[in-house]
Design brief:
Radius of gyration: 19 Å
Strand content: 15-25%
Bound molecules: adenosine-5'-triphosphate
Oligomer: single chain
Order of helices and strands: HHEEEHEEEHHHEHEHEEH
CATH class: Alpha Beta
Number of helices: 9
Number of strands: 10
Shape: globular
InterPro entries: AAA+_ATPase, ABC_transporter-like_ATP-bd, ABC_transporter_ATP-bind, P-loop_NTPase
Keywords: ATP-binding, Nucleotide-binding, Transport
GO molecular function: ATP binding
CATH superfamily: P-loop containing nucleotide triphosphate hydrolases
Protein name: ABC transporter ATP-binding protein
Strand order of the largest sheet: 6-7-8-3-9-10
Structural class: alpha/beta
Pfam family, one: ABC_tran
Distance between the termini: 47 Å
């Protein structure tokens, strides 16, 4: 994001928006300037916040140890408040663990990390800029002009917005705005793409279309993806593995309760029986009574 754009972002969005001001990754490029997918390691990550009504800290995440291989799509599921977004923020450097380390490509994350790009549930576009410009804002600073134009053109094509590039965010649908946000994140060619409920605010049909689009995007840019979602079916459709965060009885802190490897190649058949069984297991792991389903 250019300096003038980043300085005009609303204050309450400033910390997340800082992830959009990430500059060109320094050491993670191949010679043809495509990004490499990078590994992510959560090494004994704990995060506690000051307790609201007591001196006791509010421990949210405890002893999270997890390896994500380059190019993997990892979905993170868990009950509301179990620390999914907090875990993602630790990977992006928007937040820091109280204990433990996050390593990207073997190097600790220390502050906002230019190897990651983040997309949130709300697209957070600049309302006074058109779609083309909003995608362009994701480009690393110093991208040569001709390359920048070509990259934005290709991304707009990839997310099927090439005919709408001249419109402003208020003139497009929620799904189109979210596609713009995804293209902006990809413009940086991140080694790790962090998606926090990216389709959570969309209607059911648009959400399914966006899932298919994300698969196409991942095929075109096979980066490492960490996807926080509440949607079990979305996780089963998109992920190589699904991590479920959970708490022990009488504890506030969540840790890794289960890790599932999702069977079958993508795109997966949504009515596959094996996936259906895994769906029930996941739902019951999330505390949903599955007997009636
Ligand atoms: N900056 C903060 N200061 C204090 N507490 C925080 C802060 N950030 C998160 N928390 C607390 O950490 C807990 C986990 O929040 P987080 O948003 O990571 O959960 P989540 O699993 O993503 O929730 P949801 O599914 O509802 O979005 C919550 O109790 C929240 O209040």
């Amino acid at each position: 994001m250019s300096l003038d754009a980043s300085t005009s972002v609303r204050a309450e969005e400033a910390d997340e928006a800082a992830s959009d001001s990430i500059t060109e990754p320094r050491n993670h490029r191949t010679q043809n300037n495509t990004s490499q997918a990078l590994s992510v390691r959560f090494d004994n990550v704990c995060r506690a916040f000051p307790g609201k009504n007591s001196n006791e800290p509010h421990v949210v995440l405890k002893d999270i140890t997890l390896d994500v291989v380059p190019g993997e799509v990892l979905a993170i599921l868990g009950p509301s408040g179990s620390g999914k977004s907090t875990l993602l923020r630790a990977a992006s450097g928007l937040d820091a663990p109280t204990r433990g380390t996050v390593l990207i490509d073997g190097t600790p994350v220390n502050g906002i990390d230019d190897r990651c790009a983040v997309a949130f549930q709300e697209p957070r576009l600049l309302p006074w800029q058109n779609i083309h410009k909003n995608v362009e804002l994701g480009l690393p600073q110093g991208t040569p002009k001709a390359e920048a134009q070509e990259r934005v053109r290709r991304l707009l094509e990839l997310v099927e917005l090439d005919d709408y590039a001249h419109l402003r965010p208020r003139e497009v649908s929620g799904g189109m705005a979210q596609r713009t946000s995804l293209a902006r994140a990809l413009a940086r060619r991140p080694g790790v793409l962090l998606l926090d409920e990216p389709f959570g605010a969309l209607d059911a049909l648009t959400r399914l279309k966006m899932q298919d689009l994300l698969l196409q995007v991942h095929e075109a840019h096979p980066t490492t993806v960490l996807l926080v979602t509440h949607d079990v079916d979305e996780a089963l459709q998109l992920a190589d593995r699904i991590v479920v965060l959970g708490r022990k009885p009488r504890e506030t802190a969540a840790s890794v309760a289960h890790v599932f490897t999702v069977p079958g190649d993508r795109p997966r058949n949504r009515s596959d029986e094996q996936l259906g069984r895994m769906r029930l297991t996941l739902l019951s792991g999330l505390g949903v009574d599955t007997h009636r389903h």
